[in-house]
Automatic annotation (TrEMBL):
The chain crosses the membrane at residues 71-91, 126-147, 153-172, 184-203, 286-306, 713-732, 744-766, 786-816, 828-852, 864-888. PANTHER family: ATP-BINDING CASSETTE TRANSPORTER (PTHR19241). Residues 375-616 form the ABC transporter domain. GO terms for cellular component: membrane. Pfam families: ABC2_membrane, ABC2_membrane_7, ABC_tran, PDR_CDR. One of its GO terms (molecular function) is ATP hydrolysis activity. This is ZEB2-regulated ABC transporter 1. Its main location: membrane. It is found in: Membrane. InterPro entries: AAA+_ATPase (IPR003593), ABC2_TM (IPR013525), ABC_transporter-like_ATP-bd (IPR003439), ABCG_dom (IPR043926), ABCG_PDR_2 (IPR034003), PDR_CDR_ABC (IPR010929). It comes from Fusarium oxysporum f. sp. raphani.
């Protein structure tokens, strides 16, 4: 020992003396490999322009390989443009159209995906944005009837395109500055809400409160919206649709159009004056705003590049186990306390491949029926491009209790296909042949009686090992087994599989949680927890494992077989030691044909004798028998030997057929003596537990998934609470003016704008459900663990508590800041509407994502449906102004009833007090008072109120008297 320490010390001395020279030599060599002009300290070997060109080429290749996503986006934008344009098609060119034009222009920049902007390459993304924007804006612009002069259209297109790029840079910066997608989406969801609120449309500049008005100054959308409006309005006069008073033969300044910006005595309204009075916008700001937007674009481009360089996620290191709080095993109590419940799995504290000792407790682990599973002449035909192709061809064999059978073959021989066909898990194709259990047809409970360990270890990453096993035991063991007994069997399985040290560890994602071997043990444990009475299928259980872990898994299977379980597993090129663990071999050749089925024999003598007698050579003493067999049936040099034909003609094959025939005949004789009633007793329902019994277990798992995902809870509540605070204090006490009432309605609409983010935000509803559904479709559905309807119901129920709490919090923040204190009935209705809103978001998400393949596609669908619901809510375009074809959408949009219900509860009955800008001021005829002049009009149920009836000059008329008149516009 002393000499070793001395050698180490001497090596360190020699190395330290040579270190500086070696480092200089390394740096010099590395610098020679760099391109000319590169800094000596730079880590890259090529210049920045070359790096950019290479990355752009890669991004282009990625975009080309994902053409479907781009086409889906393009088609979606075209559909939205057609819908929005058709809604505003035929808008009359009168003063009533002012609000409609603002609505159209607000939609022109409202459709972008922050997450996709953050992920795409800038250079490759520009032409995509150009194509998508061109299609969208051309359709929207001309279909909605905006100004058709060339200059106005190209100014519109320029501002929309530049603003899209500028806003995308903001989201790129957020993506580059954050480490995870949930972080970026939580920030971007709130940012979108702030940008839209302070654009200037839903909350005009004169009505912005000083504490948040600064947002409009740093908001690119506010400058773009002003430019779009003044570009559309400049130099345009619109005829007034409703003069006050509407008398015939009016002259002088005795009448006025009741629209802000109008002039007494004129029958038209200058749109420039209307926008300046209502929004404080000016045409002189047009090109100034373009410069500001370009400044934002280049500033955030710089921040994006800077954060990309600085925020490099270089967190590397070994995988760690994460335990629930207070569940750290006693064997790990001496580990570094700084890990806070995390244990490095590379440390020799958990030796999961420890030798397996002891016997299987059959009573606790399995309810083995000791029945033989057999199949005869099993074939599989699948239609491919109109032609039938055979994947399995007359396969025969059996798996007896207590035996371990290997299913081997060359690549593409159909090993997994045969395993799926025998397990009744083929998704398509026509299966022919006969499958028996002790010579009788398969019972209806066959899927419950077998376990299937797939090659991919699919587990819920938020559950612990013990929770996963208990879930399987609760739903797969018979309903009459007490819960305590089910949990006791789980503890036996944990001990059997040597999982005691990580039983309370969180599964995690691959690479961040259980390692490969631990996941494989859990996969086997999940199937054993169901107490398979008949058979255990395994698809390449040693895939991805090292030799020590593979030996541990095969030792475990050997132990299970010794307990009476029948095991059939596929395996690819096992070592000689692993091959000896099996009792019987089913060897498949190409085309799904059987090349051998029978005993392996001691030291593989039986199977090697069969192939040695018929093949060109025998297996060498030092050769791996498994590799010899695969080489024999797959080597091109021996391809002239038709091993399937040799097998069909062999005495061994005839013996197999004879044994299968004996099994069938023995059952027929047994049935005649015992009657069919005994056979029916073997049959039972498809599910081990009733539907009502399934709901609690599935609900508990979904609740655990959410509770053990703090990012999910934090993101949901951050968005709901922060968004409500932003909206509440942005529209704080909007006042009783006409625009104040309109702002209050828009505040409700902005709360509804959180709908899309709640539904599709990363790690929120949709992605959570996708994880559950994937697990169900891959494993749990085939095992008849629970019903699909139970999965849907459990996910909806798990969301409701969060939605109720969020609804209450949103009500408390929004109601008292915008509506103030009203009657108990009104406040109760507003509370119910907000709870309904959040529950609607949850159920709507599940409705959309359930039939779709992934959350990305579902997100695109949600975006289209959400904007259609908002568009047809009656706020942007009233029911009366809608084209007849679209009236049905107003009736079916949930937002119609949500916005209308909250608005009526919070505003109905309030009197309107016009602001100075909203008052229609005109002069009465000489010698008349305002009251006398307006009396005929007021007696005809005029909608407004005359404020100074006794005045003889400057009559002040408020166009509306009550908030209900504003609400009535939207029915």
């Amino acid at each position: 020992m002393l000499s070793i320490l001395e050698e180490i010390e001497q090596y360190q001395k020699d190395f330290s003396s040579k270190w500086e020279a070696t480092q200089r030599e390394f740096e010099s060599t590395r610098h020679k490999l760099k391109a000319k002009g590169m800094l000596h300290r730079a880590s890259q070997t090529v210049s920045f322009p070359i790096q950019t060109a290479i990355c752009a080429r890669r991004a282009t290749q990625q975009l080309w390989n994902d053409k479907g996503s781009t086409l889906t986006t393009l088609i979606g934008e075209i559909v939205i443009a057609l819908v929005v344009g058709s809604v505003f098609y035929g808008t009359p060119e009168t003063s009533d159209a002012f609000f409609s034009y603002g609505s159209v222009l607000s939609f022109s920049y409202g459709f972008y995906r922050p997450s996709s902007d953050a992920l795409a390459s800038i250079l490759v993304d520009i032409p995509v944005k150009l194509v998508v924007g061109t299609c969208f804006n051309i359709i929207l612009y001309f279909l909605s009837g905006l100004a058709t002069t060339a200059s106005q259209f190209f100014i519109f297109f320029l501002f929309v395109f530049v603003t899209t790029l500028a806003v995308s840079m903001v989201f790129r910066t957020i993506a580059a500055a954050t480490r995870t997608l949930p972080q970026a989406m939580a920030i971007s969801g709130f940012l979108v809400l702030a940008l839209v609120t302070y654009t200037g449309f839903v909350l005009p500049g004169p009505y912005m409160h000083p504490w948040f008005k600064w947002i409009s100054y740093i908001n690119q959308l506010s400058y773009a919206f002003e430019a779009l409006l003044v570009n559309q309005a400049h130099g345009t006069n619109y005829p007034c649709s409703n003069l006050v008073p509407p008398y015939p033969n009016l002259t002088g300044d005795t009448f006025i159009c009741p629209v802000p910006g109008s002039v007494a005595g004129e029958t038209f309204v200058n749109e420039d004056a209307w926008f300046e009075t209502s929004y404080d916008y000016s045409y002189s700001h047009l090109w100034r705003n373009l410069g500001i937007i370009l400044g934002f674009l280049f500033f955030f481009l710089f921040t994006y590049l800077l954060t990309s360089e600085l925020n490099v996620n270089s967190s590397t290191g070994p995988d760690v186990l994460v335990f629930l709080r207070g569940r750290l095993p006693s064997t790990m109590a001496h580990t570094d306390l700084k890990l806070k419940g995390r244990v490095d799995i590379e440390r020799p504290l958990v030796v999961s491949s420890a030798p397996i000792e002891g016997n299987v407790n059959e009573a606790a682990l399995m309810q083995v029926d000791r029945e033989t599973f057999s199949w005869r002449k099993v074939s599989l035909d699948v239609m491919i491009k109109g032609h039938s192709r055979r994947f399995l061809d007359n396969s025969c064999g059996w798996v007896k209790p207590g035996s371990l059978t290997a299913l081997m073959g060359v690549s593409g021989a159909g090993k997994t296909t045969l395993l799926n066909a025998l397990a009744q898990r083929m998704p398509s194709g026509v299966i022919q042949g006969e499958l028996y259990v002790d010579g009788r047809p398969l019972p209806t409970s066959f899927n419950n009686d077998v376990g299937y360990v797939q090659q991919q270890d699919v587990h819920l990453e938020t559950s612990t090992v013990r929770e996963a096993l208990r879930f399987s035991a609760m739903l797969r063991q018979p309903f009459d087994v007490p819960k305590s007994e089910k949990f006791a069997s789980v503890e036996e399985i944990i001990h059997l599989l040597n999982m005691d040290d990580f039983a309370d560890a969180v599964v995690g994602l691959p690479g961040k949680g259980l390692n490969v071997e631990q996941r494989k043990r859990l996969s086997i444990g999940v199937e054993l927890a169901g107490k398979p009475a008949l058979l255990l299928f395994l698809d390449e259980p040693t895939s991805g494992l090292d030799s020590q872990s593979s030996e541990a898994i095969l030792a475990l299977l050997r132990k299970l077989a010794a307990g009476g379980l029948s095991i059939l597993c596929t395996i690819h090129q096992p070592s000689a030691m692993l091959f000896q663990r099996f009792d019987r071999l089913l060897l498949m050749a190409r085309g799904g044909k059987v090349a051998y089925f029978g005993d392996i024999g001691e030291n593989s003598e039986t199977v090697l004798r069969y192939f040695g007698d018929r093949g060109p050579r025998r297996c060498a003493d030092a050769e791996n028998p498994a590799e010899y067999l695969l080489d024999a049936i797959g080597n091109t040099n021996t391809a002239k030997l038709d091993w399937p034909c040799l097998w069909d003609a062999s005495a061994e094959a005839k013996a197999v057929s004879t044994e299968l025939e004996r099994m069938t005949k023995s059952f027929s004789a047994w049935r005649q003596g015992n009657g069919s009633d005994v056979v029916q007793a073997r049959q039972r329902g498809a599910y081990s537990m009733s539907l009502l019994s399934q709901i609690p277990s599935v609900c508990v798992r979904v609740f655990q998934q959410y509770w053990q995902s703090p990012t999910y809870i934090a993101s949901k509540f951050t968005l709901g609470v922060a968004g409500s605070l932003l909206i509440g204090f942005s529209f704080f006490q909007p006042g009783q003016s006409i625009l104040g009432v309109q702002n209050a309605i828009f505040s409700i609409l902005m709360v509804c704008a959180m709908f899309s983010s709640l539904v599709q935000q990363a790690l929120l509803i949709m992605p959570k459900f996708i994880v559950q559904r994937t697990l169900y479709e891959v494993r749990e559905r085939h095992s008849n663990m629970y019903s699909w309807s139970v999965l849907i119901l459990a996910n909806i129920l798990a969301e409701i508590p969060y939605h109720v709490v969020l609804g209450v919090m949103t009500f408390a923040i929004f109601n008292y800041t915008v509506f103030g204190i009203r009657s108990s009935e009104d406040q109760g209705l507003v509370l119910l509407f907000f709870v309904y809103f959040y529950i609607l978001a949850g159920t709507f998400a599940h409705m959309v994502v359930a039939p779709l393949p992934d959350a990305t596609t579902a997100g695109r669908v949600v975006t289209i449906l959400f904007w259609m619901m908002i568009l047809f809510s009656g706020v942007f375009q009233t029911l009366i102004a809608l084209p007849g074809f679209w009236i049905f959408m107003y009736r079916v949009s949930p937002m119609t009833y949500l916005v209308g219900g909250v608005a009526v509860s919070g505003l109905s009955g309030d009197a309107i007090i016009c602001s100075q800008a909203e008052l229609a001021v005109f002069q009465p005829p000489a010698g008349e008072t305002c009251g006398a002049y307006m009396q005929p009009y007021l007696e005809q149920a005029a909608p407004g109120t005359l404020l100074n009836p006794d005045a003889t000059a400057s009559c002040s008329y408020c166009p509306l008297g009550y908030a209900d008149q504003v609400l009535a516009r939207s029915d």
